[in-house]
Structures are given as C-alpha cells and as structure tokens.
Amino acid sequence: MRGNTIGQLFRLCSFGESHGTAIGGVVDGCPAGLQLDLGAVQGELDRRRPGSTPLGTARNEADRVEFLSGLFQTQGQARSDLRTTLGTPIGFLIPNADAKSGDYDKLKDVYRPGHADRTWEDKFGLRDHRGGGRSSARTTASVVVAGAIARQFLSAAGIQVNAYVSAVEAVKADPAKLDLATVWDNPVRCADPVAAKAMTALIEEVRAQGDSVGGVVSCIIQGTPAGLGEPVFDKLEADLAKAMLSINAAKGFQVGSGFEASVLRGSEHNKRSQGGILGGISTGETIHFDVAFKPTATIAQAQETTDRSGAKVTLEAKGRHDPCVVPRAVPIVEAMACIVLADHLLRQCSARA
Q1: How many domains is the chain built from?
Q2: What confidence tens digit (pLDDT) does each residue in 108-125 have?
C-alpha cells in the first residue's frame, strides 16, 4: 500500500486528486445494522467544504457526497435520508466541480516554497501540478465523510468528539471561557467568542497583506471508555498523532500537558491531567489534544524559489488559497479522531475472552 489507508478494523482507503474528476473513498469494517443519517454526513462535509467560511479559499465546491455501496434502505425507515449499513465496504464519491486548473499552468516546472512539489517529484518521478494533485488538502473531504460515519457509530456508544480553534498566531482562546456550543457561530471556529473576534480580525489583516498565518486546533473527546489503545506500537495517542500529522499543514501534536511536561518535575506533573491516556490506553477520562498547523504555504507575495533546472526564479502564485487553514481544519481533526476511536473501539472487542 502507498499510504492511502488508515485504520485496521475500521478502515478508510481514499483516492483522487485536487483537480481530477472526483475524490472519494471506501470505508471498510463499519458494522452492519448501523442506521446512518446521510443528512448528518453531508452536514459535516459542508463544514469543511471550500467556501464554508469567508476566511477561507474562494474555491466553492458543493461537495455533495454520492454513496455507491454498503448501504440499504430498509422498510419502515421514516426518513428518506436514512440508510442501514450492510457490513460491506461503503464506497462514496465527491465530484470536483470548481477546479480552475489554468491557475497552475505556470507551475509545471516551478517548485512552490513550502509545498510538496519537489519531494513528490523526487519520490514518484512526476507530479500533478494542478493544485498539488494528491498532496492537496482537497483530499481531506474523503476523511470527513469517513469520520462522519465513524461519529455515528461512536455516538451509539456515548462518545462525543468536539474540536475548535484554540489559537491563531499569538491570539489564544481563554480556557476558562470556552463554550463548545458557539464553535460554528463564528467564521474562525473558536469556542471563545471574544477571542474569535480577535482571530477573525487578524486573519483578515494578514490576507490583506497577501500573507498567511498558522494556528492550533484543540480537540476534546468525552465518553471514551477505559481500555482503548493497543500497546506497544498502536498506543491510542500514537495512532491519534499519526492521524493528525497526516492532515495537510499539520506540524505538531501533543496530548494532555504535551511539551509543557518536559519542564515540570514529577511531583508537579503527576498531579495534572494526563489528557485521558496513560500507557497508551484510555483512562475513561476526557481526552484532550492539540494540533499545530503552519501558515498556508501559497501566499500572494513574490517568493524566491527554483525550477526543475535548478535556476532561481521569482514565484508570484495565482489561485484560491486559505490565508489560515485552521478554521477549515476543525472538522478534519474531528473526523480523524472519530476514525481512530472507531477503529480502537472495534479492536477492544477482541482484547478479552
């Protein structure tokens, strides 16, 4: 496999490129008999889609998901958007309708600073220059669909997953003022309404300068039973870290006290929350982790780079790009967490006689 599949029992294999005909995936391992709300799946996809926030890219994809297999409409289901999972692979497709490949014509022989253009070409010998091809964040739409399915499986087990923007550059949410119910009421997806206004103003200022800014998405998982996680190499936080760091532009992950733990003494740290995970296994307490995202690599300023021949060139990129990725990363972080938890919940069923 070429890194296109995540999970062991609950698995997603995704496919597609940014400017291809469509993107999509296959979810395998979802138990039979789950009543799936397709409207809720589409709702989560709508939160991630291009154009979902005025602080994001101008690309405006409808992102209407079409399910191809694995679902069945049983007699007696009261709503037309309800389906029952068959226990077979759930295939789905999301058309690309608003791709403007011409914006990337001048990038065929030029490597964009901060992007995967050169490394992708070093590995495969060629690349799709249109929006980054398979390396584009466009492919995370498939993750959100799979995560939405996983979320409904987790919900039946009483597990809730909620993420929010906790920082944009130096502007941080106040932990004492978090209200998760307000996350989707502001364009920056922050749980602190006061900080959200400051974050929004900062992102708009940076966009006007033709620049970009990074930030942090935090995630809170409630209702997780004790015992999830597979030591030694599939610890719960290890799988969460791998999932989060596979998201485009993610550069850092920490659970609980994270890097702050390195400057504490044992007498101090033992009194603190461990983020809901000990020894790679969930404790039954609330799980808390943070994901750091870098500034968007493509900006509306001239940048020095090189072309295929090694010659230095000045790049003035065109296209439609987010000045800050974290608002649209929130549903992706939630989706990745749901996929990992659904996988470990199923794996836990085989841990005891």
Answers
A1: 1
A2: 888 888 888 889 888 898
